[in-house]
Amino acid sequence: MPTALVTDSTAYLPPGSLHGLPVHVVPLHVVIGGREHEEGVDIGPARVADALHAFTPVSTSRPAPGAFLEAYESAARDGADAVVSVHLSGELSSTVAGAELAAEQAPVPVTVVDSRALGMVMGHAVLAGARAAREGASAATVERLVRETCAGSSVVFYVDTLEYLRRGGRIGRAGALVGSALAIKPILGLRDGQIVPLERVRTASRAIARLEELSLTAAERALGAHPAGADLAVHHLDAQARAEQLADRLAERAGRLLGDRAAVGVEVVELGAVVGAHVGPGTLAVAVVPRVGG
């Protein structure tokens, strides 16, 4: 395969999804009570949720540039003559900067892509690029697929409290809501890689209902631009039952609303330790990702 992909652990790719694909995953770090862990290696979302419930200090950090360099070198040893490296929004993390530093020393050309997103927006973009790479696509084609997939995608999410985003400094323009946080259940989104407020709702049940409506609207919009189909990922932290109920409703309503216009897939993917540490238990998010043509 002439082109390989590198991504980071916040893509939250489901187990088994990378089988046979030229993808290397570099873990971000989570620190709980002063002890450092690698996401997806020796820590998962349940441990982070428990720590947050117990008010144990939790922080996160990017991988060292050397970890990216090792991934690029590994891809070269496996036969790749180019790498497309896709990462968490640079507005939320310095992960992209670490990848760019490592790219300067890589043994093959590396194109670093700021996804301006997280979770399965990144995940589906990486999978689309990797499938093309498996068929022999050039690095330029893989990069285009990744960028177009990310650009056409959206993320809408609900958090039980803004406190975790505030503590971690990732709150962005949603910081304007903090003063009234006790009186509202905020619905947030990602725009240009930053967290932005979308709506203020008074109860959790209404917030989840609006999350559903906004996700369906986003799916319709994505399909209007990319009739080949769309994938929806319902992310959560410590809210499995709610996530499954939301996914079932989205699948049913998308089928009714969109009919034969396109295939729509819906899956439940738990948020990992890094993003979970910043949004907190009870979070629900929906990523809407179009299937971009090759």
Task: Characterize this entry briefly.
The protein has 294 residues and is α/β, with parallel strands linked by helices. 38% of the residues lie in helices and 25% in strands.
Average pLDDT confidence is 89
CATH topology grouping of the largest domain: Hypothetical Protein Tm841, Chain: A,domain 3
* Alpha plus pi helix count: 9
Overall shape: it is globular
Tell me the count of domains: 2
- The CATH class of the largest domain is identified as Alpha Beta
Strand content: 25-35%
First-residue to last-residue Cα separation: 17 Å
The CATH architecture of the largest domain can be given as 2-Layer Sandwich
Radius of gyration: 18 Å
Strands in their spatial order, largest beta sheet: 10-9-8-13-11-12
Question: Which short descriptors sum up this protein?
Answer:
294 residues; alpha/beta; Rossmann fold; Hypothetical Protein Tm841, Chain: A,domain 3; 2 domains; 6-stranded mixed sheet; 4-stranded parallel sheet; 9 helices; 38% helix
